[in-house]
Amino acid sequence: MKLNPSISAIVWSLVSLYTVTAHAEVPTLFISEYLEGASNNKALELYNNTDSNLILDNYRIEIYFNGNTSAGATIKLSGTLAAGKTYVIAHSSASFADTADKTSGSLSFNGNDAVVLKNGDSILDSIGQIGSSDYWSNGSGTVSTQNMDLRRSATVTDIDPTDVFDPGAQWTDYSLDDFSDLGIYGADDGSNGDDGGDNPPITELSCDDATLAIGSVQGNGLATPLAGQQVEIGGVVTAVFPGLSGFYVQDAGDADDTTSDGIFIYAGAKTLDNVTVGDTYVVSGIAAEYYDNTQLTNPDWKQCGVGSLPAAVNVTLPVSDLSTLEALEGMLVHFDNLTINDVDDLANYGEMTLSNGRRMTPTQVAESGEAAAAIYDENRRNAIVLDEGVSGKINGTTPPYPYPGFSANNSLRVGDTVSNITGPLYYSFNQYHVSPITPVTFDSSVNPRSDYPELLNEGNIRVASFNVLNFFNGDGAGAGFPTSRGASTYEDFLKQKAKIVAALSNMQADVIGLLEIENDGYGAQSAIAELTEALSEASGQHWAYINPGVDQLGTDVITSAFIYRPDVVTPIGAAKYLDKTNSIVDENGVPLFNSDKMRPTLGQTFKLNNEKAILTTVINHLRSKGGSCGAGDDDNSLGGSGACNGTRNRAATAIAQWVSDNYADQPVLLMGDFNAYAKEDPILTLGNAGFERVNDIVGNSDSYSYVYDGLSGQLDHALANDELACAVVAVTEWHINADETSSLEYDNSYADDSLFRSSDHDPVVLELALHKLHGVGHYLRGNHHGHGYGYGHLKGKGKGHQQRGHRF
Questions:
Q1: CA–CA separation, 517 vs 544, rounded Å?
Q2: What sign results for the dihedral spanned by CA atoms 697, 700, 704, 710?
Q3: Residue 704 has pLDDT above 80, yes or no
Q4: Largest distance between two CA atoms of the chain
Q5: Span 711-721, mean pLDDT?
């Protein structure tokens, strides 16, 4: 039936009225892109359509699942969003999650789940219809909320999430998992909507067109001065990266050293098959910033002829100022003889951080303050990220580095060197990157792996400390996984145990202090019992553990412990521990050792068998730098000591007094993870109390046991009191972990059963010659000759793994 003209007019009047009430002109924040991709590839892009910054703390996303009228998930926003900028929220497991402003596992819609944007209780925008469980599409079904990327194409928002929803009225559809435009509102197809305005259509390009110098587009600051404008440039294609969906163009220059002569062309979904390195092109596109890297978006290009690649600019690190690198953004650069500083992203992203030499954590080599801040600044100027030119995670693809591809037996370590690096420079995630266009050269000979600690073997006892990376054994009978920490499955636990036992066996120690072992008591099925039994079986030696006489040591889920060889040493007396109940107190009566924030300190005295020499070992695991311990406790200065420095320092004072009260006149060795670098207050406080770092005693100034954020430093220390100092023969941080990528840990698909990356901390291993000690308390009465034990089951030549016997 057809409507007569008068009825039709009434109907359209009602439709228009409905549209006015259900939609609104965009006044503030709105949803500019909706990505409903495969698996966890879910994202929302929000756009600030105002002329001022928006504080997002009162804004939130609500998701109504499967027609439910109550929100099943709420994602609160935070921070400040600048005028005309985007804010991307992605599922935390999305392949592009690393590019998002916020990630959340709750961002999980499936095409029939309504999404609502609110400011307080005010609805600003919505997608879908609350109360409906259908997949929404336009009449023809070509624009749908299921398995599509939708980009806003209308200038109104949907402020009534209960009305009938037609995605075709406001949205333009793109293919599944096309997240090429995510975070770049204003870079679509030149039409109204997700392109930032009414950009003129691109006309047919000509090689005779007048073009802007690339330096004019780059400008001499951090961002392009022509943002949002259609520009046309010309130059030689220097590199093509399909993994980045684009290519680089560089021109002859504008005679201004403060502006870059190269730029990235973001092609989006356009094919790059017709782009040839070395040929000249004219390119038209919109000048934009993508995570502070200048590029042309929505491009069109025309090949104009054969050119030649410009010479790469040689760059030496550290640069005098980061503006030196900004002036080279998009240009071909060349680096030589750099040192790998970080390999944690090698397997997942194909990236590694390089610098001129190994960069040290500032407070490893300088006290907090101006000196540490100066090192912090130099470290920032002494870094470049080498990557393979692919956006986001590799997702199952074998990383190319080192050639022919990464594996457990073909990896790279911090300390290896890299040369012959040539490629375009770009900025991403607050760091400058270079993607090589020719093979680079790796050299692992400068920092090779070592199967055994390299020590002199001239002492008569070897002592070590080792962080066992949350060694949790479930219920002790193969079940009980996942646990609160550590392995998620029994299979992962077996691999973890194999790696840790291999490290402990090859350590060739007599007494070992353990950190991060499960605090589940000392029974037959406890973690410490299982580890000790496994070590005995693997090493062919009898090992035992210290039971301090409590059900559990401390209230944390992890604790510290001692294991030892009864054929070498014998415990003397009961173990003692320090916590808040027996700590000295401050002027307000508050314990200096706050065991509510850290693990108790554990001490045990041992006697050398067949000798009368004794040694007291004290294992410590102080409060970490994570979180905050409150105003006045944290050191937030540039390059400073980080969070909870005050808590750790108070604990150090308590430890020194506790040792004095309990082990007076005895040779004492403090060991463990102090969560403080060598020049931080806790270590300095212990030094003032008479405990000297053994590294300083033997002149080992290059010590480190941990690598964090591309910086090396020592969190794991050994300190000797005056009574023990003369017996220190040698010390090493056995670099089997800190220099290795975390992708080799037990819960990763690349992991093997080797001792490498058995933890994230390196073991600290010492040789002591206790026969050198003299004085009351250092020996029990009797002779003190060597006990002549050996390690005949370990074979090989060289330092650290020869058979041990009489060594003095």
A1: 15
A2: positive
A3: yes
A4: 119
A5: 98
Rounded Cα distance, 402 and 415, in Å: 14
Inter-residue contact 353 to 710 (CB < 8 Å): yes
Give DSSP secondary structure letters for 397-461.
SPP-PSTT--BTTB---TT-EEE-EEEEEEEETTEEEE--SS--EEE-TTS---SS------SSE
Residues 549-578: pLDDT tens digits? 999 999 999 999 999 999 999 999 999 999
H/E run at residue 506: helix 490-507
Tokens of 750: 């690349």
* pLDDT top residue among 11 and 484: 484
Two structure tokens written together for 251: 């021109």
Which residue, among 512, 325, 522, has the nearest Cα to 434 in the 3D structure? 325
Q: Is 66 helix (H, G, I), strand (E, B) or coil?
A: coil
* pLDDT at res. 155: 59
pLDDT attached to residue 781 = 35
Residue type, 419: S
What Å distances lie between residue 105 and 74, 111, 125, 424, 693, CA to CA?
11, 17, 22, 35, 45
3-class SS at 229?
coil
Contact 562, 511 (CB under 8 A): yes
**Number of other residues whose CB lies within 10 A of the CB of residue 145:** 25
Tokens representing 115 are 């999404």
pLDDT of residue 371 exceeding 80 = yes
C-alpha pair distances (Å), 547 with each of 513, 536, 560: 13, 17, 11
Least confident of 66-70, 294-298, 563-567, 569-573: 66-70
- What's the start-to-end Cα distance of the chain, in Å? 109
Q: Tell me how long the chain is.
A: 808
**What are the tens digits of pLDDT across the range 3-38?**
333 333 333 333 333 333 355 556 678 888 888 887
Strand-by-strand arrangement of the 86-91 sheet: 102-104, 86-91, 42-48, 29-36, 149-152, 171-174
362-391 average pLDDT score? 96
Report the pLDDT value the prediction gives residue 124, as an integer from 0 to 100. 85
Q: What is the pLDDT of residues 255-278, one digit of tens each?
A: 999 999 999 999 998 999 999 999
* Half-sphere exposure of residue 486: CA atoms within 13 angstroms, side-chain side: 29
Sign of CA dihedral 23, 24, 28, 33: positive
> What is the pLDDT at residue 140?
65
Decide: 547 and 576 in contact? Cβ < 8 Å: no
pLDDT of residue 12: 31
| Interacting residues of 636 by C-beta distance below 8 A, sequence separation 6+ | 642, 643
Q: Which element (helix H / strand E) includes 74?
A: strand 73-76
Return the HEC string of 735-765: CCCCCCCHHHCCCCCCCCCCCCCCCCCCCEE
**pLDDT, mean over the chain:** 87
Which of these, 676, 575, 682, lies nearest to 619 by C-alpha position?
575
Give the separation between CA 117 and CA 75, rounded to whole angstroms.
10
Which whole-number Å values give the CA distances from 257 to 215, 551, 594, in the listed order?
Answer: 9, 69, 56
- The residue written with tokens 């600048």 in the block is 82
Query: CB–CB of 410/750 below 8 Å?
Result: no
Q: How confident is the model at residue 524 (pLDDT cuts 50, 70, 90)?
A: very high
- DSSP-assigned states of every residue in 230-280: EEEEEEEEEEEEGGGTEEEEE-S--S-TTS-SEEEEE-TTS--TT--TTEE
Strand order in the sheet with 352-355: 313-314, 332-335, 421-428, 431-434, 384-386, 352-355, 338-342, 417-419, 441-443
- Amino acid symbol at 241: F
Question: CA nearest 745: which of 181, 392, 344, 175?
Answer: 344
Give the model's pLDDT for residue 725: 97
Helix axes 490-507, 527-539, angle to 10 degrees: 60
